[in-house]
Amino acid sequence: MSRLPLEGVKVLDVSTMIAAPFGAVLLGDFGADVIKIEMPGKGDTLRHVGPFLDHEPLRWPGLSRNKKSLTLDLRKKEGMEIFKKLVSKVDIVIENFRPGTLEKWGGGYEELKKINPNLVMIRVSGYGQTGPFREKAGFGTPATAFSGFTYLQGYPDRPPVSPPFSLTDYITGIYVAFAAVTAIYYRDVHPQGEGQMVDIALYESVFRMMEFLIAEYDKLGKIRERSPGLTGHSSPAGTFMTKDGHWVVLVTSTDSTFERLAKAMNRKDLLTNEKFCTNERRLQHHDEMNQMVADWIRSMTREDLLQLLDEYGVPVSPILNIKDIFEHPHYQARENIIEVKHPRLGKIKVPGIVPKFEKTPGTIRHIAPDLGEHNQEILQDMLGLSLEEIQTLEEKNVI
């Protein structure tokens, strides 16, 4: 097997739940050696989040693969001492405690960089390490609301709707991985490169993606209200039902894609109609435009519609549920769902590796660990502790 791109990079994952751990698992997928530090006896809180089968957390295998588990109570003096010894031997620390927590335990960034000046420390919190909200409890769903995203979700005559899964956490996890490799590149490539701290707020991960909202309010004074789909961006666009009762999504984000749609509809006259000839004009007559497309789509079966629009190059997709995804040949061809062995469940399916590298593809080297599975390996091999010393730490509930 070819070398993995992050082979040799050592990571301490001192985080819980989703956002920061997801960033760590992305690094692990591409070869980083990730040690996950968990509370003795309890472990990561994600181990206790559903769904479950026979008391086994089903999310754990997908979010904690390619990690080794070390139990360590950082609140205890001996635990913090071991943590600092590990910090001296790694490249990256990822944490998501409330700002000030690690400092209270004696393990803040200023303290750690004395031990390891080359350390890259990724700090994830709800609202960042600075600002009046820095100490506010931060989870993905409230952070999504704070970002302005939730305000846009839903219909104008109904309450705002939060995303049905931890969207902001996963987006933040991508920023975590991006920040880690960027900081490592700077440290290792630039002549004066050194370690540094990276501050990531959950809400900022989503807010960064809404430049349209900023520009619109800044220059037009408009407060965008809730609406389904891409209202205000392009027309026609939306969710439509076919003749045989299936939902599809169609969007024409450019005038050229609308031109292809008009030809597929056998409505070239729309291209010269003053109300519909440009996206700006179509947005002014969006309801009329969308209704025209909805009526046309309702006259066709899903299979016929998709085949026709694919021939014309119109962006369209069926709306798939998870059963559809499991059975879809494209998902299978891309290996988007793969199967791994599980010590108690036998086998379990998890997401595949993303993105796909041509020369150095990522891989699942080992499944998600049991709590404290690698205590002895890490403490003996990395720190040189004896079995007697490890046993003493266990008796004191440090590990």
TrEMBL record:
SUPFAM superfamilies: CoA-transferase family III (CaiB/BaiF). Keywords: Transferase. Transmembrane segments: none annotated. GO terms for molecular function: CoA-transferase activity. Pfam families: CoA_transf_3. The keyword Transferase applies. It comes from the Bacteria. InterPro entries: CoA-transferase_III_domain, CoA-Trfase_fam_III, CoA-Trfase_III_dom3_sf, CoA-Trfase_III_dom_1_sf. This is Putative acyl-CoA-transferase.
